[in-house]
Amino acid sequence: HVLLDAACFAATSAIDLSKYTPDYVALSFYKMAGYPSLGALLVRRPTDNATEGPGYCLRRPYFAGGSVVECTSTIPWQMYKEFPARLEDGTLPFLSIVALKGGLTRLSSLTMSQIHKHTVVLAAWL
């Protein structure tokens, strides 16, 4: 499996995911919009297949708050939520998710080419 850590790169450059086809892409909205400190994991082919596919790599040997539908205390058994909800432990940062809209709205008013050129100028100045 291939993981593309695009957290830094995606903030200043376009990524063609049809040219490079990783199984996973890690993104940082903090680096793209400044606030809030949220990230994302894009999964090319979500699957719950127990022996292959990206879903297999995302299996955990434990469960935490909010990631299961039910479990027992007498035998080691649990029923996980559907993918991708099973990867979200606890309460989602809903206020941060709402705040992200403003940053993404601003980013959508610019082109990635403009952002990249500005970044190159700033790097040369430093």
TrEMBL record:
Family matches, as SUPFAM superfamilies: PLP-dependent transferases (SSF53383)
Protein name according to UniProt: Aminotransferase class V domain-containing protein
Source species of the chain: Eutreptiella gymnastica
Alphabetical list of Pfam families matching this protein: Aminotran_5
Residues in Aminotransferase class V domain copies: 2-125
InterPro entries: Aminotrans_V_dom, PyrdxlP-dep_Trfase, PyrdxlP-dep_Trfase_major
